[in-house]
């Protein structure tokens, strides 16, 4: 009766499938009898097409007995050897669980794809049954993979509990563990060197097309790679033993070893970050919490996380961005070079400030000397910092010379004035023809004190307190009057005139005497070489002209117009006091006799 029931169920499916192509739950959730009846029905079909063959194959696969995964049981470890085996089993289960999950995800994707395909098939499509059977095959596979994943997850939890519980009864010899680790690292390194060497030999054999040698080397490589995998797996387990020893003795080195285990698990066993975070890290954390303590574990873990963040940050800023002269340039190098350059400017400014302070307290330092020392030291420090920054960035002096040579033409034309001013500034600093504090005259409207000499320009402060910035090349190419270059004395020439008929000797005497006895006498230089003189210069149309020559020193020298005005006031007052006439321009008109032939208008005619 049951066989008849299943037969009718299959018949209903076959009939309904002719009306609508949809996911058939009878096949997806079918059992052995359902699939056997379908197989018998399909086998009766004499048309052995590809679809019929595929249907038979799928039904045969569905009829195969599937062994449900069984949960293994483990016991507490009694010594470090059995404890190590538990950890190795834990590693194997992590990899197996990861592999199972990957296959499960792929199968689930296939179910979505095949079911989407079924929904798009026509009602009488020949491939409808085979697609339905393949969908059932994938569902059966997913079911088994889910069971297997659940079983592995239970095993992992069991192993984790056993490892945490067993640690309290295990005795470790840390010295022996360090020796074992050293030996294991040496073996792994030697093994890796052999693999790398064989890879080169294999490539050489491939180049000469020696197939037999390539095949032989390939077998050796497979054997070596398996041995290397086993050695590194043992090495990782030995690190776990050392970690467990540190945890049991409540040694803070456990946190460092924990980080080492996480790194080695990725390097040696190729565990992904998810596998480490989901399985390995929780095991290590559980051991730390139980034997080191919750608070200390959190403190140590936080400290380790901070170190990891700092390490990742350090690694990021040292990541090469580009290369210059085969030197990798990273963010750190660029920032470091920039900081050195800025530091050079700061040190140069501090040096300049210190020199100015020392020079202002010592009379032996002139303003010009102070400026030369300050500017040269400043530019030297900045230049050194600049080259240090370039060296960090991998730019060598030879490269700079090449670039300078390539840019020499451009500098000659485009930067001609800048280079000229720069060189002129150096000449002014060393030649000292113009110094800080000098009172100079560039043209009739530009005169004042030199307040600063830079590499490109010189600053002049006029009597109107206006700062004028003049390019340095103007002082080299043009005439410049330096009123205070050698000393602070200058001769003023003050012109004046008197009327005709005045005693010229009296004028000379009274003016000279008045000047020497005036309030300006403290600023007048009078000695054998520099004497105040009044001389007659010419007999002009309206006046007899004189000129006062007087030597002046001090601040009066820097105010020429004001000083000349003061001397003119003295001259005017003296002439006025001695009743000496000061002439003004005048012309006499002489009318010659009128010729007889020119008619003269009478008074009446004029009117």
Count of discrete alpha- or pi-helical segments spanning 4 or more residues:
19
N-to-C CA distance: 168 Å
Q: Largest sheet at a glance?
A: 5 strands, antiparallel
How many separate domains? 5
Mean pLDDT: 79
Estimate percent helicity.
55-70%
What Rg is obtained from the alpha carbons, in whole angstroms?
54 Å
Adjacency order of strands in the biggest sheet: 6-5-4-3-7
Proportion of residues in β-strands:
5-15%
Can you tell me about this structure?
With 607 residues, the protein is an alpha+beta fold. It folds into five domains: 167 residues; 146 residues, no CATH class; 84 residues, no CATH class; 52 residues, SH3 type barrels (Roll); 89 residues, Alpha-Beta Plaits. Helices cover 64% and strands 11% of the residues. It has 19 helices and eleven strands. The strands form three sheets. The chain has a five-stranded antiparallel β-sheet. Strands 8, 9, 10 and 11 form a four-stranded antiparallel β-sheet that branches. Helix 5 crosses helix 8, helix 8 packs antiparallel against helix 9 and helix 9 packs antiparallel against helix 10. The termini are far apart. The relative contact order is 0.04. The N terminus and C terminus are likely disordered.
